[in-house]
Write a structure and sequence with these properties.
By secondary structure, the chain is of the alpha/beta class. It is built from 10 helices and 11 strands. The structure holds manganese (II) ion. The site of manganese (II) ion has 7 residues, from α3.
Amino acid sequence: MRWNVLPAAGKKSKPRIPDNTRIYAIGDVHGRADLLQQMFSAIDESLVTHPVENAVQVLLGDYIDRGPDSRKVIDLLIARATRHAMVYLKGNHESYALQFLSDPSALSEWRQVGGMNTLLSYGIRPSAEDDPDEQRKTAAAFRNALPESHVHFLQKLVLSFTCGDFFFVHAGVRPGIPLAQQHEQDLLWIRDDFLLHEEDLGKIIVHGHTPRKEAEVRSNRINIDTGAFATGRLSCLVLQGNDMAVI
Ligand SMILES: [Mn+2]
């Protein structure tokens, strides 16, 4: 496992998290249960070799779609929370799944972004026909195939998490709006209005949603979506005191 110590963000005082705390923030998993399992093993190992009083693992959303094993990813996340402090943020892909459960016609759009892979992982093979009748049948089959624990997991996802000088969110934030007043639409979907903004945003925003070859460290944000489903690289940002590293 490679540890890359990231360059300081170029501020007068380095951003930090409270003492005796370590954050592990993991980027977009998109159905890659294999990579998630490896990452959890690496984290477990680091907790043994470098123990810390409070360790919090934050997942940045987009657990499902595109990759092969969405169902197993959710199983792993649910199991992990029984023995670790976990924060599960909502990604736009989880909002597609929830939307589809309440409105079967959302299937047309969900198909375009890898939703089929999620349905297949639950043993559902929707017909190629995309008419309202088929959509209703597929939504009913999905609802039946979803364990209650998975429905609960999807419904309990949170939009953001704050620790020290860092704000964790799936996609980003809307510049000019206080962090506490951001809208869900922006937190789950925003791209250029956020990505191209170079000024201070109140805290360092740790996010995913827009894949890059390498973790991207800016003075106001850190992107750890390294496109795991296509690249085989799942990234994790480790924060402690004012140190940061990517594994
Ligand atoms: Mn996303």
